Amino acid sequence: MIEIRDLEVAYDQDIALKELNLSVPAHSTCAVIGSSGCGKTTLLYALAGLVRPQSGSIVIGGKSVSGIRKETGLVLQDYGLLPWKTVRDNLAFPLKARGFGAVETSERVGAMLEELGLESLGHRLPGELSGGQKQRVAIGRTLVLEPDVLLMDEASSALDAMTKELIQNLVLRLHRERQFTLVLVTHNIEEAVFLGQRILVMADGRVQEQIDNPYFGEADFRDHPSFFEMSLKIRRRLYEQA
Amino acid sequence: MSRLKGEMRQLGGDRAQSGDRTKSDDKSQRRLRSSASLRGSWLQTLYGMLAILLFWYVMHISVGSAAIPAPHTAILHFLRIFPGELSKHLLVSLGRISVALLVSLVLGGALGLWMGVSERADRWLSPVVYLLYPLPKIAFLPVLMILFGLGETSKIMLIIIIIIFQILVAARDGVREISKELYYSVLSLGIGRSGLYRHLILPATLPKIMTALRICVGVSISILFFGENYATTYGIGYFIMNSWLMADYVEMFSGILALSLMGFLLFKGIDLLEARWCRWTRLTRRLTDVHK
Ligand SMILES: Nc1ncnc2c1ncn2[C@@H]1O[C@H](COP(=O)(O)OP(=O)(O)OP(=O)(O)O)[C@@H](O)[C@H]1O
Ligand SMILES: [Mg+2]
């Protein structure tokens, strides 16, 4: 589904990504972990077609990425909600701008709000929401567009431990139901282990290691010894890179 | 499935805190709050008027000159002449200012947004803007008179070339202040260029533009006064200067009252538009309210 070959991205003179190769099968999930500044966000921007690579290629669904791809959804760390639009309008405006009629827009938005437990918050402004609620709205806003690729950056890093796990559960459930290909950037080892079918360890703008996570998606995965094993393994690899 | 429900309920935990507050509850509360603040704003206006009247009385008594008539004399005269002559002058002035504000808003706003969005436009236009901005443009009045004649156009142009920069710079800076993350988030929704302007760029810059507009109202009233002192027998500026020359100070103060009324209405109008269009900014303002 996603094929990256010899990708190199630079900001002016600073090289942020180099010789990056990656392939993510359709409908699978991939967690990207690495220390601050190693290029994780840049990788997502490149996948979303927001920054132009110096060299190399990104192919999604058989087509080379050059610019915004309508079937790719992006959720960034600060949620990216429009503070002047209510929750409902934040979900509705991309649909309307893409030419959906009022009836279909309202149906889709209503269903999504319900699915995310946000029905009663539809008329609120983002400034009147908690962090976890904003995160759900941001996820909902990309999902109403029915993407086949979802890119998430630090999806839960600003949330408390409890809310963090609930958001992770939600993402896992939505992935099961909707089968999008997920690339998720995180600082958090547990999050990478819980949500990554494959875990990428990045350092210095390169993918240093790809670790398959055979236990991904097991029931109550967090309570199993295998979860701790995996977490330990990732932690060791991270320290080796540092 | 029931586990999923549980998860959702937990996720909505913060909702439980506020009880089962429904949409209509929230709305009626909001209405209550806004009507209370409306009443508050009228009380504030009343207070402002009383404070100024008091100061005026004090000046009237302590200076003891005909140049500062008693407030009640001026107000009574104002009420007498307003329906006839004075309102005509006021409307002419209001028309001139409105046209100038509107043209500046559209032209300056569009140019500023363009400079904010396009790095190239900014590179080529900013130096020009920075060189023109601080010039004393009143000094160009003779040039304007030659170019646009002595009529309305030169008066309105004078206001425009002074206030347009304020709006232009506000719009440009407003675009620049949009965070990269917000920009990318919205861009990734695939809503196209016009969608980007309509849903992100315009609303994001609007509060800044409204603030600039408010400053422009004050400035344009002062400039108007200047512009209405040549080649016209209409306008509140003319009315005031004329009364002054005839040493009719009660009449002059009636004109000043009319001018302040016009300024007040313009400011209130902008406040109303801002309250309607920029409601979201009120969530973050008023840091001092936090501890109440
Ligand atoms: N706009 C920019 N201009 C110049 N350099 C940049 C820019 N954005 C990022 N960089 C540099 O590119 C490198 C990768 O940045 P990136 O934001 O992708 O890192 P990250 O892994 O997401 O970090 P974090 O975990 O802190 O979010 C860093 O060295 C950073 O300094
Ligand atoms: Mg980052």
Short description:
The complex is a heterodimer of chains A (242) and B (292). Chain A is of the alpha/beta class and 242 residues long.
List the keywords.
heterodimer; A: 242 residues; alpha/beta; Rossmann fold; 2 domains; 6-stranded mixed sheet; 4-stranded antiparallel sheet; 26% strand; B: 292 residues; mainly alpha; MetI-like fold; 11 helices; binds adenosine-5'-triphosphate; binds magnesium ion
Please provide a written account of the structure.
Chain A is an alpha/beta fold and 242 residues long. Chain A has two domains: 163 residues, Rossmann fold, CATH 3.40.50.300; 65 residues, no CATH class. Helices cover 36% and strands 26% of the residues of chain A. Chain A is built from seven helices and ten strands. In chain A, helix 2 crosses helix 3, helix 2 runs parallel beside helix 4 and helix 6 crosses helix 7. The relative contact order of chain A is 0.18. The model of chain A has no long low-confidence stretch (mean pLDDT 93). Chain B has a domain of 152 residues: Orthogonal Bundle (MetI-like fold), CATH 1.10.3720.10. Chain B starts with a helix and ends in a 15-residue tail after the last helix. The N terminus of chain B is likely disordered. Chains A and B meet through strand 6, helix 2, helix 4 and helix 5 of A and helix 1, helix 3, helix 8 and helix 9 of B. The site of magnesium ion (MG) has 3 residues of chain A, from helix 1.
